[in-house]
Write a structure and sequence with these properties.
- This protein has helices spanning about 90-95, 125-130, 145-150, 185-200, 220-230, 240, 245-260; strands at about 20-25, 35-40, 50-60, 65, 75-85, 105-115, 135, 140-145, 155-165, 165-175, 205, 270-275, 280-290.
- With about 290 residues, it is an alpha+beta fold.
- It has a single domain (about 20-280), classed as Fumarylacetoacetate hydrolase, domain 2 (Alpha-Beta Complex).
- Strands 1, 2, 3, 5, 6, 7, 8 and 11 form an eight-stranded mixed β-sheet that branches. A five-stranded mixed β-sheet has the order 4-13-12-9-10, with no helix packed on it.
- The radius of gyration is 18 Å and the shape is globular.
Amino acid sequence: MCNIVVLPEMNTIDSSKIGRVWLTDGSPARFSDVHQLRATHRSILGIRTPYKGLVDPAVPIGSAIIEAERADDVIIPEAEWTVLFPDGIRRYLEAPDHVDHATPVLMQGLIEGKWLNRLLGTRAWGPASMGNNLLADGPGIPATLGQIEAGARGEIQITYQYQHAGQTRTQVQRTTLADLRGQNILGLVRDVLRFCQETEQEIDAIDLSAMGPEAALVTDRRRLWASMRFARVPLPNPQYLFPLHRLGERIVQSILAEGLTVPPDTAISIVTRDPHGTVVGQGKLSWQAG
């Protein structure tokens, strides 16, 4: 049975808390190890794409230090929204179709980590996406799914520093609640609840994937178009004329070549702000080289 953990209102960060989070992949890439849902949305390039994903069974809340398993591991963060239920999940689990636009939710930020090197030469998504995530700690933003679909206000900002040409630079990833507008969040939530009910998997939050042009390095439109070019000519129909998995690998290689990954022992900070600019979620994630 699934249980949603409601985060208490607090200003301190409790690193002892762990949650089970459904991680959503909203990209058009076809991975071999994810569960595909019926719900679809408008992904990059305007392609209508099914949502898919996996359950990460141990996501730290507030603060964590993770250790790389491979010598070549490098990580980047993505800014993503998660859905929690303030009134409990039991009745929604028993009847997922009863979830509607009036359903109350809490919106909180997530650092969705990516072992970037693990996306090369494979069709697997899980090894790059599991065990390197962090849910922000705090009361979150109260809303309804209808308000989220309509474009509510709120922002997640993730920052980290890296070295380039001998200088320290700050990389920022951000996403707003308005980026979720028109992305069929209601359909996604219903399908995740159905999946959880059918497979008897426990979860504490539903991640909504990287939404918005600044949520992740891999969704940067300039990088996307640059990776789509060959012989200096952009493709007119990338969905059919360019293998999407190959496109994804080109984007990954461009990020690696630019040295934009997070250095070891460097903090990745996340802050969630409500419509008034008040901090309602925060956390820090860092990693150690294996």
